[in-house]
Amino acid sequence: MKKIATILCVVMFVNGCSNVATTNVERDEEVSLVKKEDELTYKKPNTNPSESLHITPYYLPDENSRRRTAEVTHVMIHYTSNAARNPQNPYMLENIYSLFEEYGVSAHYIINREGNIFQLVDENRVAFHAGKGMDLNFLEYRNNMNEYSIGIELMAIGTKEEMSLNLKEGQYELIPTSHIGYTDEQYDSLAKLLEDLYERYPKVLRNRENVVGHDEYAPVRKSDPGSLFEWERIGF
């Protein structure tokens, strides 16, 4: 009986360690379960963008994001500016960065008018860019899209109607016309960044169900990237 009890203890110890190890892998290494050659194996996602993209780190404080625990399946496109406070010069990166800090929001990447890409949050962390909303194709993501998405901001300004949510009367007329809409350089950089994300995140499919605008997820609250954004310029 003593020998049997010893064997049972050993079996329970091994099984217990196995369960703990699996939990630690899921929690600490943020792995995704993938099916390969009919066997389930764990594969850690590659959260490092290609060096060929020439991304400049410009990280927000840690409190502007949190650790990611879900698999990335979406990319969300936004526009951003400082037009409400400086309509004549709305695209100073340091000013937009300060706004993000002030309001406790974030995105993983921001692309300026010249097409330069800056990384604000590591991909292995959840950025606070989507907020409350609902995707009819993924109802289970209701008010929780941040967990499953990479957020990309483009420095841009929409139409007067779209910007009326954020600008006071008369401010839109102060914005130089060259600041309205998007630039060729931004479309080029965004397309390259998306190609890199498609390669590294198999669940981010190259379609308009997995690559969405903020205005599609939260149409009552948000208008970005708006009607001036040309989806065909990034392959749709």
TrEMBL record:
SMART domains: Ami_2
This protein's record includes keyword Signal: yes
MF terms (GO), sorted A to Z: N-acetylmuramoyl-L-alanine amidase activity
N-acetylmuramoyl-L-alanine amidase domain residues: 60-226
Alphabetic keyword roster: Cell wall biogenesis/degradation, Hydrolase, Signal
EC number: 3.5.1.28
Pfam family of the protein (one): Amidase_2
Catalytic activity field: Hydrolyzes the link between N-acetylmuramoyl residues and L-amino acid residues in certain cell-wall glycopeptides
Record keyword Signal present: yes
Gene3D superfamilies: Peptidoglycan recognition protein-like
Cleaved signal peptide residues: 1-23
GO BP terms in the entry: cell wall organization; peptidoglycan catabolic process; peptidoglycan turnover
InterPro entries the record matches: Amidase/PGRP_sf, Amidase_domain, NAMLAA_amidase_2
Name of this chain's protein: N-acetylmuramoyl-L-alanine amidase
